[in-house]
Design a protein that fits this description.
alpha+beta
Length: 105
């Protein structure tokens, strides 16, 4: 037989623990969303800036090496032009000022 006060105290303790766990889960879910967003942004930045030792950039579509053709300037913006991706991802140029890829075809 269990004393009613002991049973009540135990039930209250379990309810308090459940509330604390719910708060932790909510905080963890929010932090996870923030970290995923940060990770996506870092992956995009890394893909745009990744340069191999040979001076070739990685294709933003597949990560394969793109062969540089020339550098040009249009409307005050400097672009590096590359040959078609050998894996069929497309034709790209790199906006050096904006530090981003532009898909041409």
């Amino acid at each position: 037989m269990v004393a009613p006060a002991t049973l009540l105290a135990r039930a209250q303790l379990l309810l308090d623990r459940a509330d604390a766990l719910r708060e932790r889960v909510a905080g963890t879910a929010q932090r996870t969303a923030e970290l995923l967003a940060r990770s996506r942004k870092l992956r995009e930045t890394t893909a745009a800036l990744s340069v191999t030792v040979a001076g070739k950039r990685a294709c933003p579509g597949c990560g394969g090496q793109l062969e540089w053709i020339e550098r040009g300037r249009i409307g005050g913006t400097t672009y590096d032009y590359y040959r078609w991706c050998l894996k069929g991802c497309g034709l790209y140029c790199f906006d050096r000022d904006g530090r981003r890829w532009v898909k041409l075809a």
